[in-house]
Amino acid sequence: MRTRRTPPPAARKLTLAEQATDPFVEAPRAVLERLRSLVDDADDESPADGFLVPCEPSAAPGAAAISAPLPGDGVPMAVERAFAFIDICGFTSYCDQHGEQAAIEILTHFRSVTRQVVGRRGVRVAKWLGDGVMLVGTEMTPLLAAVAELECRFRATGLDTHAGVAGGSVLLFEGDDYVGRAVNLAARLSDAAQAGEILAAEPPHELPNWMEPLGQLTVQVAGMGRVAGVVRVRARPEVDAALAGDTPAA
Fold first, then answer.
1. Which fold has domain 77-244?
2. Phi and psi of 231, rounded to 5°?
3. 195 burial type by CB count under 10 A (0-12 exposed, 13-18 middle, 19+ buried)
4. What would the pLDDT profile of 36-68 be if each residue is shown by its tens digit?
5. Which of 76, 162, 223, 232 is least surrounded by CB atoms within 10 angstroms?
6. Sequence ranges of the domains in the chain
7. Is 107 helix (H, G, I), strand (E, B) or coil?
8. How many CA atoms lie less than 13 Å away from 61 in the CB half-sphere?
9. d(CA 202, CA 165)
């Protein structure tokens, strides 16, 4: 004969008064009081006692240089930047002739070399564009140096590229998106450049000593009309020879 078990009675919810006297349960008010006590004690402790001492706002490095928030939410900032667009010449035809695997190898090589050079030159990859790349820098000269070195290194491995460079004031959206004439001009100059050519809009007068200008010209830019003050720049021939032997540019 089976014995019927009686289910245990349902647990009764304690009242606040009972919770306050129960050694395993604390009332919400008691919990809050304990937290306040811990915070007050932490203010009196030193770092050696295991607590962090809050920093005074004035002690933060560079605090005076941090600008106040502007009216509105997420207002874009105007910044000075230099931009470059570099594209592989004839990439679509290359893919058609040599197949997908060969195209993957070319792109892998292109991106690997780009990362190495821009990291050393203090320039940043803003975005990859399939068979091209958009670079951004805070100054024009290091950006030009990176583009010229990349062109030499790619040419030494049989890869032809073309590039456009421009700088100026642009709007910075959400920390990594740039909008302005300089971005568009750099992209259009890259489209107008021939294989192995770098077109720079108003580059600095003093270039690195291993680079040289090849004359000034006016370029018909799609959507922007005739743009004067564009200069063809390149690395000197001896740099090409050095890089062909895998010697870095200075």
1. Alpha-Beta Plaits (3.30.70)
2. -120, 135
3. exposed
4. 665 455 455 444 444 444 444 445 556 666 766
5. 223
6. 77-244
7. helix
8. 0
9. 9
Q: How far apart are CA 141 and CA 145, in angstroms?
A: 6
198-201 vs 177-179, strand pairing mode: unpaired
Phi, psi of 32 (to 5 degrees): -60, -40
Q: What is the pLDDT of residues 90-124, one digit of tens each?
A: 888 888 888 888 888 889 999 999 999 999 999 99
Helix or strand (DSSP H, E) at 134: strand 132-137
Neighbours of 63 (CB within 10 A): 11
Q: Which of 184, 186, 236, 190 is nearest to 210 (CA)?
A: 236
Tokens of 163: 């590039």
Residue the block writes with tokens 């993957």: 104
Determine phi and psi for 98, rounding to 5 degrees: -110, -10
Q: How far apart are CA 232 and CA 192, in angstroms?
A: 12
How far is 58 from 209, CA to CA, in rounded Å?
44
Nearest to 149 by CA among 178, 124, 174, 118: 118
Residue type, 139: E
Tokens of 63: 């605090």
Q: Which of 146, 147, 161, 159 is nearest to 106 (CA)?
A: 159
